[in-house]
Design brief:
InterPro entries: BC10-like (IPR044174), Glyco_trans_14 (IPR003406). Its main location: membrane. It is a single-pass type II membrane protein. The chain is of the alpha/beta class and 362 residues long. The protein has a domain of 235 residues: Spore Coat Polysaccharide Biosynthesis Protein SpsA, Chain A, CATH 3.90.550. α2 packs parallel to α4 and α4 crosses α7.
Amino acid sequence: MFSNQFVLFFSLLLCLPFVFFFVAPHVFPSPPGESLIPISDEIDDRSLFIAAAGSTSLSHLSSGNPNPKLKIAFLFLTNSDLHFAPIWDRFFSGHSKSLYNVYVHADPFVNVTRPGNGSVFENAFIANAKRTARASPTLISATRRLLATAFLDDPANTYFAVLSQYCIPLHSFNYVYSSLFESSIFDKSDPDPNPNPRGIRILYRSFMELISDEPRLWKRYTARGRYAMMPEVPFEKFRVGSQFFVMTRRHALLTIKDRILWRKFKLPCYRSDECYPEEHYFPTLLNMKDPDGCTGYTLTRVNWTGTVKGHPYTYKPKEVVPELIQRLRRSNHSSSYFFARKFTPDCLKPLLAIADSVIFRD
């Protein structure tokens, strides 16, 4: 005959599944569901990424050309008209197309006016653009789409600058180009600042933030659930940073080829107020794969004072004066910032008024 203690123990054991069924959902939330990105978009992207990853040209520097024409690929993400196209046209004006390419990812569900009349943006819109939404993995997809398109399009694309429709240049094209490829003093964190005899910097690094001391880092990490990112992305490897950066070609290829981290970052979040995948994916990926290949800072200046619902401070026309441009250029990490955001569309007129005398006068 069973003892009373054994019967009690056996009864408790039988009750455990029921206890777990009712209590566990409150203690251990279920993992997020599948990505909200349409499977058709994923299939289209996979084809593009496979083609780009299969490209044999990793760097134009390896071509053996004694006078290589290295290019900067300017990648614009937009879900509205390119209000500052005129100032960007002036930025590129007079410079050979052998030094740059321009690509635009425009949300096809938004009626975006395409600049014409000889604008650099006239034929820059990529054909495989998909729907995007702020604070969602669709912005990761859009950026990877731009990177893959530019990577495939021209093997001379050596740096990839990701920008928004609200970004403006703070310097001339000559300043940006020479700083990236030739200057030995531009990047103050460069461990090997000496250019090679051809005047081309030997060490290329991506200008990307890898922030690990952000006050809300843990809440951002657990936005999909406490254990949702494990085991692929441990918390100590998780980073945040600006979604606007300047990336090297080798890092563009690394990003295009990634499958593992993408499966994590495309998952929906429980906490939308802490979920900004576009600010988490790229810094975390490069921090895990090649942190020494990054400077740890961005070249796009943003003012986060007075932020509203995650949006940075937005400059108004009355604020656009020469002193503002000079102030936005100042950087503790490099000789200067290249770009700045965020400006209201009606800032175009005052910006054009000081373009030649201030912005493009380095």
